[in-house]
Specification:
A seven-stranded mixed sheet has the order 1-7-6-5-4-2-3, sandwiched between helices. A three-stranded antiparallel sheet has the order 8-9-10, with helices on one face. Helices cover 38% and strands 12% of the residues. The chain is of the alpha/beta class. The protein has 14 helices and ten strands. The radius of gyration is 22 Å and the shape is globular. Bound molecules: pyridoxal-5'-phosphate (PLP). Pyridoxal-5'-phosphate (PLP) binds next to helix 3 and helix 4.
Length: 398
């Protein structure tokens, strides 16, 4: 006999919903922010450079540029590499819309590549198929926290003379199979510090790069297109500044950077904890039918921003929406990452994309469910997730 599902009036696995992701804020984070509040600098002070140096060290790059969020990081990166009207930028469709929006802000056309069915990472063969004379850049996305196949992507980018970027918003703390840290895998690499991401500054973002020219361009871009910031002017006692291009106010405050510094120090432990939870899921779910988990590429350090399952719909009596609702009723804060970006009305209407453009991602989307994973989750929390998934899939088995 199957257990009665909560959605049918049974007892839920959890009385209080477990979120799919959440930040961890400790006493040292609070002390660091408080200290900035009591100092003279609330924004564009010493904590910005300190955070940038710590992030560059973590990623193994020469430069990091802090900006106000991950979307601003993508916009600034597109600016730095000179993406503009008439250009095409290849992005995977299985991502958050912001990956593509950066190119659209610059008047360029995002072109959507399909993904590998086992990993849902950008498929290098699809990238090759979508290259044209207009392709200026490729933005890989380390979906769920797993580094993409950079050996293959770099070979394509180099042979065609296009820039390879990494939207690494999911993957801070991860590593490629060759040991290189996420943040150093693309020519420019973008991060988000939204509360559900690997570390948080409330809202925040950054770009890492080895290019001094790109870093300088992005520092100007984040500050209205002005060449020197307020602090540099005060230090030199001068009043003169020049706006040399149309930039944005994309600065990250000292308050936020102070939080970023204390958060970053805890990243390695948090990634290890995310990996433990993922292992627990993988072991348990090997024995559950009607679903599969994603494949991890050999030798990579997966940062597990997200943990996905894919339903085997032909083994179930219901669709993904019904499984999703039943899991929510059991107190599991499931989510779906992502609706393929080329299916959003803006992209359909402005760029003529539509169903059929990326068949692997479209089929995967119908089967995807994101399960909770975050560092402060306990083993008992993870076991509740496992119990709820097993219970719901057993009840809906064909
Ligand atoms: C979160 C995220 C972004 C956007 O970051 P924000 O800080 O929310 O602007 C971009 N790309 C990916 C892959 C993300 O997960």
């Amino acid at each position: 006999m199957n257990e009665k599902l909560a959605i049918d009036g049974g007892t839920p696995v959890r009385s209080e919903t477990l979120p799919y992701g959440r930040q961890a804020i400790d006493a040292d984070d609070i002390a660091a922010v408080t200290e900035v509040l009591q100092s003279g600098w609330l924004t564009t002070g010493p904590k910005v450079a300190e955070f940038e140096e710590a992030l560059a060290a973590c990623c193994g790059t020469s430069h990091a540029v802090a900006v106000s969020n991950g979307t601003a990081a993508l916009h600034a990166a597109m600016y730095a590499v000179g993406v503009g009207p008439g250009d095409e930028v290849i992005v995977p469709t299985m991502t958050f819309a912001a990956t593509a929006n950066g190119a659209a802000y610059r008047g360029a056309a995002p072109v959507f590549a399909d993904v590998d069915p086992a990993t849902l990472l950008i498929d290098p063969a699809s990238v090759e198929a979508k290259l044209t004379q207009r392709t200026k850049a490729i933005i890989a996305v380390d979906y769920a926290g797993q580094p993409c196949d950079y050996a293959a992507l770099r070979a394509i980018a180099e042979s065609r003379g296009v820039v390879l970027l990494d939207d690494a918003c999911h993957a801070l703390g991860g590593r490629d199979a060759d040991g290189r840290a996420v943040g150093s895998l693309g020519e420019l690499n973008t991060f988000s510090f939204h509360p559900v991401k690997p570390i948080t500054t409330g809202e925040g973002g950054a770009i890492t790069t080895d290019s001094a020219a790109h870093a300088a361009a992005m520092r100007t871009f984040r500050n209205h297109g002005i060449t020197t910031d307020f602090r540099q002017r005060e230090q030199t006692g001068g009043w003169f500044y020049e706006m040399v291009d149309l930039g944005q106010n994309y600065r990250l405050s000292d308050l936020q950077c102070a939080l970023g510094i204390t958060q970053l120090a805890k990243l390695p432990g948090w990634v290890a904890r995310r990996q433990q939870i993922a292992r627990r899921y993988d072991e348990a779910f090997a024995g559950v039918d009607a679903m599969t988990t994603l494949t991890t590429r050999p030798g990579v350090e997966h940062a597990y921003h997200l943990f996905m399952i894919q339903l085997k719909l032909d083994a179930l009596r219901v669709d993904r929406a019904a499984v999703f609702k039943a899991l929510r009723a059991e107190g599991i804060g499931v989510n779906v990452h992502y609706i393929p970006v080329h299916l959003h009305p803006f992209y359909r209407e402005r760029f003529g994309t539509g169903a059929g453009d990326c068949l692997v991602a479209e089929a995967a989307y119908e089967r995807l469910i994101t399960l909770p994973v975050y560092p402060t989750m306990t083993d008992d929390d993870a076991d509740d997730v496992i119990r709820a998934v097993s219970k719901v899939l057993a009840a809906y088995r064909r």
